[in-house]
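Thread: NUBP1 factor, structure

OP (GT): Posting the sequence first so everyone is looking at the same thing. Length is 278 residues per the record. Can we get the structure tokens written out before standup tomorrow? I want them in the notebook alongside the other entries.
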Amino acid sequence: AEAAELRARLRAVRHTVLVLSGKGGVGKSTFSALLAHGLAADENKQVALLDIDICGPSIPKMMGLEGEQVHQSGSGWSPVYVEENLGVMSVGFLLSSPDDAVIWRGPKKNGLIKQFLRDVDWGEVDYLIVDTPPGTSDEHLSIVQYLSATHIDGAVIVTTPQEVSLQDVRKEINFCRKVKLPIIGVVENMSGFVCPKCKNESQIFPPTTGGAEKMCQNLNVSLLGKVPLDPQIGKSCDRGQSFLAEAPESPATLSYRNIIQRIQEYCEQHHLQEEKIM
């Protein structure tokens, strides 16, 4: 009955993409926010961003929605909209202050994730982007289990070039394979820094073991692209603005556009394959 309920609610969601990372601080929420902005740049696409990082919900701040509240309607919770075609849901909207700590055990977190999927009135959605917390535990198992009632196109895994981060990403890839979650590919974030004045490139996080590229070759996973460090990304996120719109000519924006295009192509292909099977 529960699966049927979730299926009915998410029937109008065409593509679902999970954004994962093994380690915190690699820019996963930033990537989720910019992926949503990038997809929503096409006004004909309806995009939804679901933040299931229950203890560290940073999506409301990044999307310029801090202080917003969730509204209840006859058909469930209404997402908070950034644009007409970009809706957001996060535990951050349920807290009385952005500084409130969420001190919950697993079952309560799982209950809220289920509620987000079952009770939010997303409507017709082309892309549902799910921003997850770091790691491979409760929230990840719950979202994969609940969404298996419908379908998941796959996961995008975000890393930085250094071995400390890649070590945890290998665990994340193993997690995906164990729970039969397709991997769309890996994004190497903070990949080099080009000085805006002298144009010299520096490796802030040196790829001592060959970075994400080598790891992807070894594990037979696609590398979707590398996003260089750009201080403007952090500033845009703090202001709740889309970096892609604020710095359209930046090398990081061009990299994001290529990555977003590859994700879209993967999802369309995945959709066609599913239709053939059905």
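GT: Both are above now. Quick notes for whoever picks this up: Residues 230 and 252 are 7 Å apart (CA to CA). The chain has a mean pLDDT of 92.
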